[in-house]
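Morning run. Coffee first, then this:
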Amino acid sequence: MLRFATILAVIAFSDAVHYVIPPNVSPLSQKMIDHINFMNTSWKVRIRTSNAERYSNSALRVQAGNNFDGVSLKYVLRLLGVHKDSHKYRLQEIYHNEIGDIPDSFDSREQWPDCPSIRLIRDQGSCGSCWAFGAVEAMSDRICIASGGKIKVEISAEDLLTCCRGCGYGCNGGFPGAAWEYWVSSGIVTGGLYGSHEGCQPYLIEACEHHTNGTRPPCKEGGGTPKCVHLCEKGYNKSYTADKFYGKNSYAVRSSEKQIQLEIMKNGPVEGAFSVYSDFLNYKSGQYRSIN
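And here it is:
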């Protein structure tokens, strides 16, 4: 099982020529931004529809800008929460044999309106825990969907992040595949957002402003992974063991647009990861494809 935030209906592709970013260009520099914006003028975009495909030289052109003003590259790299060794923890792959057209649009929120977790946006704070967040968010959604909207829970990112020893390195990156296997073998308790006091183990890392001005404190560099505790928050009405939810099985979906779409339509949101190249750090708008 994987979590994928959106269904991609538009695919960008470049000509056979590949552009190489000069090795002396810093990923967070203005020179990099200018280089990306110049190179993207040669991109083409293919827009898929249900019955035809049409092409444009400028539609959805990618633009770059400064997303990480005043922070170090070391801090940015820590936010890349899927560890480079995650390929060693691949799940068994399934294939959907259903034949039929994919609709032009599909919104899980509208398909399963009785499952509020699908609409929830969680904040991981200053921690490279996206591997855990993507997993527990999709798990929460799928529990609700499988129950016909009767079971509404928020599976705890805190519990998975801190207590799954085989899932990786906590705030320094993890393995999504191992997270799903852990849900099946060991179970995960419930837990809401930071300071929510919802569930057995709410998230303990404070929400922060990710390089924007707002009411929350700014995100900071550093910070360790909280310790694993096999206890629920004081005042919660269940024990840690009694609060656990277990997955029936875990699996991966083939890296095919249609296969991912079919999986979402059949079973709900999925978790996905992709390789991040230096130009992506400056992504601002448009349909992204690395110029490397």
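The chain has two domains: 1-80+277-291, 82-275. Good start to the day.
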